[in-house]
Every structure is written in C-alpha cells, then in structure tokens.
Specification:
- It is a single chain.
- The chain is mostly beta strands.
- The chain contains no helices and eleven strands.
- The N and C termini lie far apart (37 Å).
Length: 124
C-alpha cells in the first residue's frame, strides 16, 4: 500500500521561507520518480519540482533559483525548500510518486500514480 504524507505548509510573509516534507511508504523509495505540484484555486495542478528515477532534478521556471527539491533516502522523505516566497506561490502543494515517468513528462500530473493529501501554503 503506497502512502505519501506531506507536512510543513503554513502562512508566511512575502520573502520568507518554508520547507515541505513528504514521507513515502510502500515503494522502493530510491528508484522512483518524485514530484512536487501545486494547485491554485480554480486552476489546474502544475509541476513545481521533480526528481526522476536517477536523481536528476527539474524545476518550473517560476520557481528556479528560489525552490530546492531534495531527498533523504534513509528517511524515505523528499523535501521542498521554498525561499523568497511570493504571494503568487500561494497554493495547495502536493507530492506525487510513480515508478516510471517518461523522460520529459515530469511535470505532467497524469504521469504520477500516487499522491499525498496536500498541504496549504499561504504567502501574504
């Protein structure tokens, strides 16, 4: 049974930082593709940052230089460090996992089989 549990969301002022965590169970963690996505009210879910199965990271242009995705294999946890937050970063953030995401499709939500429940980030 695959389970993803996010934590770390909250409210912060513009320019501040938050770190999101996602604990993954039910997978051979080190070999899967992981992603952080976000969804603004009334909009489609969008990719923010991803790890592919060999550890290569990718970032959406809107967060490059501000967000960092990382992982701790010993803890089966993936993190999203968010710095220099802006009001437009306000959204529900989700982590996602899949054993095999096709190259170049890492920001496609439909490529991921498993999702966490989401954690709200509010920047004012």
């Amino acid at each position: 049974h695959v389970q993803l549990v996010e934590s770390g969301g909250g409210s912060v002022q513009a320019g501040g930082s938050l770190r999101l965590s996602c604990v993954v169970s039910g997978y051979t963690y080190s070999s899967i593709c992981m992603g952080w996505f976000r969804q603004h009210p009334g909009k489609e879910r969008e990719g923010v940052a991803t790890f592919d199965s060999d550890g290569t990271t990718s970032y959406a242009d809107s967060v490059k230089g501000r967000f960092t995705i990382s992982r701790d294999n010993a803890k089966n946890t993936v993190y999203l460090q968010m710095d220099s937050l802006k009001p437009e970063d306000t959204a529900m953030y989700y982590c996602a996992a899949d054993p095999d995401v096709s190259r170049g499709f890492w920001f496609r939500p439909d490529q991921y089989a498993d999702w966490g429940q989401g954690t709200q980030v509010t920047v004012s």
